[in-house]
């Protein structure tokens, strides 16, 4: 392959969906899948939570993606509160369903300090478990590997003593067998650049894909801050608070996300991951605003 051909590879494109909790939400996610499919994403990630109902809903959504669409699922998996055995069973189930990519995370700790934290204290051990389990499925995988992604943090993880510690954790995830990382949300383009620079300086070589969120709701932005510990951009918050209509808030959210994504891509990001909150329209508008290279369509269909 010539250098020219290699550098022509377009950035990857992916979306995060969460499993629906009721029939109305299910209809919405099916519509979202159809709309997102039109942009030829490289994969669609499906969030995970350990409660039995949410887990079932995640698996059903994955089954739908594999069985009824041409979209490839990236199954999120968290190890908090889980035994080694239950995780191994789940990974086997994923392989059997046709899943070839897992986003391996620890998950948020339960608020109840007495609650069971599970057999694996950190995400890197889940990465190692998936690598071990895939060895048992080498016939199904034709000797190939699962693609394993991990979480990376442009801003300090709430439990971490420092940003530098987070970078060491990312190094350990790569050494455990991770193939790529997706970033937590962030609102300042410099934070993604800082994450990548620090990771590279520490020896991380895997792609680090920026995670961007089209944010058009003040309430959701505040909830996100509580969930992730990432402070919302005060200027964006102000613009959303003073917007005169939902339509204007939506325009503001899409424009801010497109700006953040453009800055990351201009800085050399290998792809873009959009947190959709199952609102496909806003994410598709971000992609349209970016006018990603037209070779994407070809690359997505070839790799599918
Ligand atoms: P880890 O890498 O295990 O890190 C957790 C904490 O432990 C960090 O503070 C880290 O600094 C510290 N740590 C790690 N290793 C060590 C060590 N050896 N010694 C000391 N300290 C250590 N959550 C869900 O529940 N479901 C989802 O579907 C989901 N999807 C996500 C998708 C993305 C792209 C991202 C970025 C996050 C997602 N999360 C999800 C949230 C994630 O589970 C939380 O951020 C969680 O708190 C940490 O997960 P982790 O995999 O980064 O954990």
Automatic annotation (TrEMBL):
User: Needs which cofactor?
Assistant: FAD
The answer, when asked if Flavoprotein is one of the entry's keywords, is yes
The record's keywords, sorted A to Z, are:
FAD, Flavoprotein, Oxidoreductase
> What pathway, per the record?
One-carbon metabolism; tetrahydrofolate interconversion
| InterPro entries the record matches | FAD-linked_oxidoreductase-like (IPR029041), Mehydrof_redctse-like (IPR003171)
The reaction(s) annotated as catalysed by this protein in its Swiss-Prot or TrEMBL entry are: (6S)-5-methyl-5,6,7,8-tetrahydrofolate + NAD(+) = (6R)-5,10-methylene-5,6,7,8-tetrahydrofolate + NADH + H(+)
Which domain of life does the protein's organism represent? Answer: Bacteria
Q: Answer yes or no on keyword Chloroplast.
A: no
- Read off the PANTHER family from this record: METHYLENETETRAHYDROFOLATE REDUCTASE, METHYLENETETRAHYDROFOLATE REDUCTASE (NADPH)
Family membership noted in the UniProt record: Belongs to the methylenetetrahydrofolate reductase family.
Protein name (Swiss-Prot/TrEMBL): Methylenetetrahydrofolate reductase
Lineage of the organism: Bacteria, Bacillati, Actinomycetota, Actinomycetes, Micrococcales
């Amino acid at each position: 392959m010539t250098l020219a051909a290699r550098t022509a590879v377009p950035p990857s494109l992916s979306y995060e969906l969460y499993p629906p909790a009721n029939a109305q939400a299910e209809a919405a996610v099916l519509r979202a899948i159809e709309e997102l499919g039109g942009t030829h994403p490289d994969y669609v990630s499906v969030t995970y939570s350990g409660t039995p109902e949410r887990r079932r809903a995640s698996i059903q959504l994955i089954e739908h993606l594999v069985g009824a669409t041409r979209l490839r699922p990236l199954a999120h998996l968290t190890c908090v509160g889980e035994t080694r055995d239950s995780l191994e069973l789940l990974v086997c189930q994923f392989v059997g369903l046709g899943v070839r990519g897992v986003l391996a995370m620890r998950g948020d700790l339960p608020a109840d300090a007495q609650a069971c934290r599970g057999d694996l204290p950190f995400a890197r051990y889940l990465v190692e478990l998936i690598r071990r389990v895939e060895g048992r499925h080498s016939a199904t995988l034709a000797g190939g590997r699962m693609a394993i992604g991990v979480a990376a943090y442009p801003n300090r993880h709430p439990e971490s003593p420092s940003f530098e510690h987070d970078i060491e954790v990312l190094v350990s995830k790569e050494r455990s067998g991770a193939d790529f990382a997706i970033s937590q949300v962030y609102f300042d383009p410099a934070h993604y650049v800082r994450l990548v620079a620090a990771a590279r300086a520490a020896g991380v070589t895997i792609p680090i894909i920026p995670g961007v969120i089209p944010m058009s709701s003040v309430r959701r932005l505040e909830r996100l801050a509580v969930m992730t510990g990432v402070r919302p951009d005060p200027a964006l918050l102000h613009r959303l608070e003073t917007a005169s209509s939902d339509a204007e808030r939506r325009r503001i959210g899409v424009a801010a996300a497109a700006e953040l994504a453009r800055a990351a891509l201009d800085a050399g990001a290998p792809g873009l991951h959009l947190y959709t909150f199952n609102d496909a329209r806003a994410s598709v508008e971000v992609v349209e605003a970016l006018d990603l290279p037209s070779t994407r369509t070809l690359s997505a269909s070839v790799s599918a």
